[in-house]
Design goal:
The protein is mostly beta strands. It contains four helices and 34 strands. The chain folds into four domains: 95 residues, Immunoglobulin-like, CATH 2.60.40; 93 residues, Immunoglobulins (Immunoglobulin-like, Sandwich); 88 residues, Immunoglobulin-like; 104 residues, Immunoglobulin-like (Sandwich). The structure holds 2-acetamido-2-deoxy-beta-D-glucopyranose (NAG) (10 copies). One of its GO terms (biological process) is synapse organization.
Length: 457
């Protein structure tokens, strides 16, 4: 009964009608306009409060409706939309009875409660009957809709969007933010579970917005979901031809890369001379659209043909990289400072020509690794934390390391580069950038002077 009273009060507060006292007496004189008609001059034997013929609520709302009789001793009952008499005084939907009124209580409404509910007197005269229709609204949702979908090129396809909601909303579609015209379109059709696309091509890829909207007499709302549509296609190379021949030397390392697009994303496998790669001297770095094979060459037998196979359900590709023995580059014989700046060094680096190597195998550049003294201490002298800068002779013979801090000590080392990889590192040199400009010092002196003058006064 407590619940009933609380709900009663809520209902009354909502309607801003101060009839609490009258309710206490279980008497309510309804003189509002009864929308159900049935008014033949006399006060009707039955009234519903609220008295609207259509009442709309969302799932899980709570709601009470009172059926009142003029005669206090009149027996009444509620019938559900199936015509069944409801008499239970407990449960999600139940009846609460007091002299003068019979309340129908929905603790939380469910979709199954929709329909016509009727209060009627036992000694049924024609007029002693009142109905209201309960409309149950359900929020819009896109339950099982996948936010990434993929369809095949050259086929007809559906972008699925499973909208639920009561009343059922209308669905509109956008492609990359632009409205899709589905009226008289031979390309797109709006179906109940999604958008039909005829003869899918690459231009149909992108973001589809499935927007559900509804306008009802009691409320209006909308919701949307964005679906990324990918177009399936067989793999194709990112770059037309990576070097079909690569070089390495025993004791060195080399990266063989294989990058290809595909939808669904393709799988990558590497083979050496027609067999799977075994042993500890390799690692494969997989990315979404590529796989890089890193080899540490320890043994002649590791040279040969490396085949990268790329595949997805729509097709396969393969490419062979021939790995040949090259000459290890000689390390630089000269490594010193040419010019000092506050934020940069210009380096003087030389490596001799390799007398027994072909022209192709000659050194084509350098790699400089460097770290500040404090970083060096912080990383316990681990050079894998060093910054690197690669130079190639075809970009000129000036080797400038920039973006350095002023008045800071750096540790640096250098290696030569050729087609077969990197040489051994040079010894570590220690260089310091120039201190701040003298002009900065001057201004400091000026300030001090000014301060002295001020204090003097
Ligand atoms: C209704 O309430 C129940 C329990 O509180 C909850 O599990 C359910 O998700 C709710 N339904 C809606 C549509 O809000
Ligand atoms: C409820 O009753 C009204 C009037 O009799 C009728 O028009 C409507 O279709 C009924 N609704 C349902 C859900 O049966
Ligand atoms: C759709 O096509 C029909 C018949 O071809 C035509 O009468 C109608 O005006 C067209 N509607 C739109 C919106 O283009
Ligand atoms: C599908 O579209 C492609 C161009 O994107 C076209 O060449 C082909 O003929 C079309 N197929 C059909 C069945 O319309
Ligand atoms: C790759 O080569 C083919 C023909 O050799 C050419 O049609 C295509 O545009 C090239 N693709 C790229 C990404 O360079
Ligand atoms: C090979 O690739 C790995 C991972 O990207 C990289 O750390 C390494 O320096 C590369 N090795 C060579 C020789 O380029
Ligand atoms: C290379 O290594 C394999 C085993 O890993 C060994 O059988 C072979 O003899 C080695 N070849 C050379 C030239 O050292
Ligand atoms: C170059 O080759 C010759 C003989 O072919 C050999 O005597 C010499 O030591 C080689 N020089 C170097 C730097 O490898
Ligand atoms: C240097 O750091 C790298 C990366 O954290 C680590 O893998 C390597 O073992 C370290 N080397 C030494 C000699 O500590
Ligand atoms: C340069 O650094 C040294 C030591 O860190 C410091 O004593 C000196 O004042 C600095 N000079 C300038 C101009 O910042």
């Amino acid at each position: 009964m407590d619940l009933l009273i609380v709900l009663c009060c809520l209902l009354l507060a909502q309607n801003a009608v101060a009839v609490l006292g009258q309710l206490g007496n279980a008497y309510y004189n309804s003189n509002n306009n009864n929308n159900n008609g049935n008014d033949n001059g006399n006060a009707p034997p039955l009234t519903l409060t609220p008295s609207l013929p259509l009442i709309s609520h969302f799932i899980n709302d709570s709601f009470i409706i009172f059926c009142k009789t003029v005669q206090k001793d009149m027996d009444t009952k509620w019938r559900d939309p199936n015509g069944q008499t409801r008499e239970n005084t407990k449960g999600r939907v139940h009846i609460e009875k007091k002299t003068g009124f019979l309340a129908l209580v929905f603790e939380h409404i469910s979709l199954a409660d929709k329909g016509n509910w009727t209060c009627e007197a036992d000694a049924a005269t024609q007029d002693a009957k009142k109905s209201f229709e309960l409309l149950v609204n359900q929020k819009i949702s896109f339950d099982k809709t996948e936010q990434v979908q993929s369809v095949r090129e050259g086929h007809d396809a559906m972008v699925n969007c499973f909208v639920t909601g009561e009343p059922k909303p209308e669905v509109f579609w956008l492609h990359n933010g632009e409205n899709i015209n589905t009226v008289n379109s031979s390309k797109h059709r709006r179906l109940s579970d999604g958008l039909f696309i005829k003869n899918v091509s690459q231009t149909d890829a992108g973001e589809y917005t499935c927007r559900a909207m509804r306008i009802t007499p009691t409320f209006s709302d909308s919701d949307q979901i964005t679906i990324l549509l990918r177009i399936q296609h067989k793999p194709h190379w990112f770059y037309n031809e990576t070097l079909p021949v690569q070089y390495a030397y025993i004791g060195g390392a080399v990266n063989l890369s294989c990058d290809a697009m595909g939808e669904p994303p393709p799988s990558f496998t590497w083979q050496h001379n027609g067999k799977g790669i075994v042993g500890f001297n390799h690692r494969v770095f997989f990315a979404d659209y590529g796989a890089t094979l890193q080899l540490h060459i320890r043994n002649e037998s590791q040279f040969g043909d490396y085949k990268c196979k790329v595949g997805n359900p729509l097709g396969t590709l393969e490419r062979i990289i021939k790995l040949r023995a090259g000459a290890k580059p000689t390390r630089p014989t000269r490594f010193q400072i040419k010019r000092l700046y506050t934020d940069a060094f210009e380096l003087d680096i030389r490596a001799p020509r390799m007398p027994n190597a072909t022209d192709e195998m000659q050194i084509y550049g350098y790699r400089v690794a460097y770290m500040s003294e404090s970083d060096f201490k912080y990383s316990a002298g681990n050079w894998s934390y060093a910054k690197q800068r690669d130079f190639s002779f075809h970009r000129g013979h000036r080797f400038i390391i920039s973006h350095l801090e002023a008045n800071t000590t750096y540790l640096m080392r250098v290696a030569s580069r050729n087609l077969a990889g990197l040489s051994d590192w040079s010894g570590v040199n220690i260089f310091a950038t120039a201190a701040g400009s003298t002009r900065a010092l001057m201004s400091l002196w000026t300030w001090l002077l000014l301060l002295l003058v001020l204090i003097w006064h």
